[in-house]
Specification:
Pfam families: PTS_IIB. This protein has two helices and three strands. The chain is of the alpha/beta class. A three-stranded parallel beta sheet has the order 2-1-3, covered by helices on one side. It starts with a strand and ends in an 18-residue tail after the last strand.
């Protein structure tokens, strides 16, 4: 399973749109995928360890190196 973390400023609208779009499209292409949507301010190194890909709505300075691929989804 591919685990994806989507993030936006409020963790409500944009990140949930990213989540829905990625889950639908990747599932249609035959991938087993799970995506969670959160607020950017809640993203930390421990949280990031549980995911394979990070998809923020825009370039984000997290204050640490994510250690996983980052794909801007905005």
């Amino acid at each position: 399973m591919i685990k994806i973390l989507a993030a936006c400023g409020a963790g409500v609208n944009s990140s949930h749109q990213i989540k829905s779009a990625l889950e639908e499209e990747l599932s249609n292409r035959g991938y087993d995928v799970h995506c969670d949507a959160v607020m950017v301010k809640d993203v930390n190194e421990d949280l990031m360890k549980g995911y394979d890909i990070f998809t923020p709505i825009a370039a984000t300075d997290l204050g640490f190196e994510p250690g996983i691929p980052v794909i801007e989804a905005g």
